[in-house]
Specification:
Layout (H helix, E strand, L loop, with lengths): L6 E7 L6 H9 L6 E8 L5 H11 L3 E6 L4 H11 L4 E4 L5 E2 L3 H11 L4 E9 L5 E3 L7 E4 H10 L10 E4 L21 H5 L4 E13 L11 H20 L7 H21 L6 H10 L8 H4 L1 H12 L1 H10 L1
Helix pairs in contact: 1-2, 7-8, 11-12
Length: 322
Amino acid sequence: MNNYPLISVIIPCYNAERTLARCLGSVVKQSYGQLEIVLIDDGSMDGSSDIYKNFHHSDSRIKIIRQDNSGVSRARNKGVKIATGDYICFVDSDDWVEPNYCEALYRLLDQKNADISIVEASYEDEKGNVVFHKNISEEAVFDGKKALQILLEDDIIQSHPWGKLYKSSFFNDVHFPENLKCFEDYSTLFKVFDKALTVAKSNQKLYHYIQHEDSLSHNLSPQTAYYFYLAIMDVFKFWQLNKDIKDNPKITRNIIRKLLMVLKRILRQTGIADMRSEKEAIRQSFQAFLKYSPFEIGLEYYFYLRLYYYYPGMYTKLVAKK
């Protein structure tokens, strides 16, 4: 495969000594040989460095970059900046991939003349047990606008950076937001997909996503939930300006559903005096959705949007009782 283009595999790492050996082991054994493996150590304080140093000693394709603990967004941004490959894919240090992960992504992209290719994932716990069964769609090729629409519908395609292969040039002016400690991918992937003319999707499960019980995204504190709100609003602002998808009811309902979920999580875990400005920001953002009829967004969403916008105290009491 010496004549194949170079793929840069970017691996952010923070205190991953329990999982890093399996992750790196699965990447260095890829059947696609033209790899550049960029590992960014985000200030790990455990034994992660011993593990990646051992791999680096025996594999010259691995580049090690160290930074003070600054979050996964800065780690990914630094990895993208350093990467020299024609294509970029991501693997998280908690996860691992099948031996043909990169090869399948590249072949799909090449055969379909696509700008982005996608494979499916197996969602597992730390013991390898499947914890979530996602409906797997058939292999498909989408034009860029349709792929962007499907991404924002958050069903067939999700906003995970991993499990995908991208043209490196797509990240020239796109960066993961460093002000968000989590959900940074949700406010980034739509900007990348907006550049694609063609997106190809496989139904092969080649990525193993490991869900941890203590992860930020699965244990939403009020502040973490507010980070999600900020990411949702990034999508909302884009959605408002994009004429091709602005009136898509499924995207509209998905944004409203997520906003109400975030609001409920914050209200149930805070007192009246807590996070006042954040709650008000969410309330004000509801105004943009008041124009939609119950036929467009459903009676439940129609009711709850108005209840919190006009009577936030009443909505808070209602949510607290459930």
